[in-house]
Amino acid sequence: MHPPVSKPGEPPAGIARLSGALKFHGIKHSLLDANLEGLLYLLKSPRPDNAGDVWSGRSFRNLDNNLRLIKNPETYLKMDRYKRVVRDLGRVLEKVSQAGGADVGLANYQQDGLSPLRSADLIASSERFVRNIFYPYFSARLAGIIHREQPQWIGFSLNYLSQAICAFAMIGFVRREFPDIKIVAGGGLVTSWVNSPLWKDQFKGIIDHLVAGPGEKQLLSLFGVFDKENNYTPDYRTLPDGEYLSPGVILPYSASTGCYWNRCSFCPEKAEGSRYIPVPPQTVISDLEMLNVSSSPMLVHFLDSALSPSMMDTLIEKSPGIPWYGFARVDKRLTEYGFCRQLKKSGCVMLKLGLESGDQGVLDDMVKGLSVEMSRKALKALKKAGIATYVYLLFGTPSETPGSARKTLEFTAANSENIDFLNLAVFNMPLAASGFYGLKTRFFYDADLSLYTDFSHPAGWGRREVKKFLDNEFRRHRAIAGILKNDPPVFTSNHAPFFVGKTPAGSLLS
Predict the structure, then answer these.
(1) CB neighbours (10 Å) of residue 253?
(2) Using CA atoms, how far apart are residues 502 and 4, in angstroms rounded to an integer?
């Protein structure tokens, strides 16, 4: 199952991949997107007493209509209307959850002051599961499935910190009510925990089996299946159809795990020693053709850390016939209009680009393998070809100074006409990479599951100073402020491709 809370805009790819492997070997199983179901359960709860203000009143009155509008393509033709719908849905969740002692949004969860960064708090959540805001939903839902299916194992796909508290509440419920069932947990967050230097098997006795990295083979081994096959076609067919909060079916797909570049000094994947494992490009095309028939997606979301050059070549040679987007590394080919035009013809509507900085010295220190000039040329070529760009910038790295940050501001402003969306992030030092820089580090607070550490910046360019710069200078620049207004709230890059209709990228919704 996929536990609450994460963005409910597309089906969870992790459990779909596991389902494909289990189905291939004839192992009976079922899938549960408890995130989607749980959020819909909260949204449709009775209006609480704390919702008497004007905004809340409007949000509850228009709830059913807003749930229809978030799935209506016409909503995405006007950003102001879209933002109102998303914020009103969030307001309903906020008021309902606050009445139950929690703070829940479309992509966040907080309750009882519990932190997903402390194992003691997650264990406490498993022991106090009746206090979880989703308890009325998951207690009835899980009991029904368990009585009907009689499973030997229950698996939790745990990818985001916002899922951890709820996942452990559900685990605690299963442990208490169905003690004979074994529990397995995997996913991106579990992988990061297990690979952390702080890991001490904190959940022994609560979780029977933890899976780090790709889970298909490890899950199959629990059932005595030892297969050399690495690639299984994901199976989304038993997940809800038409219920996700998007204007059509978005199909998430991983053409690889890890990163083919795997050199960036700040990258958690490199720090954790994640291996790059690609799916053969022809297998990707075959999978997408099969999934196109079974799911009729409007859009393919490639989940790769970066689409490899060979994968891009294959997409150009044999287009899947479905619009697509994903992360890409800037290289020489992306600076060429002809190549970008070929990508556009293959179905590419948007690329997410980790440009990180507009200062060459900072990029070199990061081992990004790109130049500021390459970034400029790529943005220009992609815009000309009609491919939207979602640009990621990173501030506060060890080699950045206030002067470096202002070079990034100047670069962004100078190229603003060729940037469609922006994501601004403050650097977090991965725990496993802290030794790379030789800097004095310190924990943010007492958190044995933390994946990052604070550090003393050589130039005094700390988090507080970086945030002040972003708020007082970067975001206030007129050209940059205009780009930031384009970002879809909450769903961000997941919904961004639906807002490129007024750019040369053309409209997915036309």
Answers:
(1) 25
(2) 34
Mean of pLDDT over the chain: 93
pLDDT at 506: 44
Residues 450-482 pLDDT 10s: 988 888 899 999 999 999 999 999 999 999 999
Q: Residues 263-275: pLDDT tens digits? A: 887 777 766 677 8
Rounded Cα distance, 126 and 112, in Å: 13
**Which residues sit opposite 156 in a β-bridge?**
185
> What residue type is 97 in one-letter code?
S
358: tokens are 């507009």
Q: Per the structure block, which two tokens stand in for 115?
A: 């932190």
pLDDT tier for residue 330 given thresholds of 50, 70 and 90: very high
Radius of gyration of the chain (CA): 23
Q: Name the nearest CA neighbour of 509 among 77, 203, 115.
A: 77
| CA 281/CA 11 separation, integer angstroms | 23
**Exposed, middle or buried by CB within 10 Å (0-12, 13-18, 19+), for 220?**
buried
Helix (H) or strand (E) holding 299: strand 299-302
- How far CA 81 is from CA of 18, 58, 87, 379, in Å, comes to 37, 14, 10, 29
510 pLDDT tier (thresholds 50, 70, 90) = low
**Phi/psi of residue 422, each to 5°?**
-130, 140
DSSP class of 354: E
Beta-strand ranges (E) seen in 295-450 are 299-302, 324-328, 348-356, 388-395, 421-426, 429-430, 441-442
Domain boundaries, the chain: 13-221, 250-499
The two most distant CA atoms of the chain are separated, in Å, by: 63
Token pair for residue 86? 């998303």
CA–chain centroid gap for 126, Å, is 25
**CA 479 to the chain's CA centroid:** 27
In single-letter form, the type of residue at position 8 comes to P
- Asked if residues 328 and 306 have their Cβ atoms less than 8 Å apart, the reply is yes
Burial label for 180, CB within 10 Å (0-12, 13-18, 19+), is exposed
Give the tens place of pLDDT for each residue, 120-176. Answer: 999 999 999 999 999 999 999 999 999 999 999 999 999 999 999 999 999 999 999
Query: Please, what CATH class does the domain formed by 250-499 belong to?
Result: alpha beta
**pLDDT for the residue numbered 50:** 93
The phi and psi torsions of 391 (rounded to 5 degrees) equal: -95, 130
Q: Provide the token pair at 67.
A: 């749930």
Closest C-alpha to 134, from 228, 40, 67, 65: 40
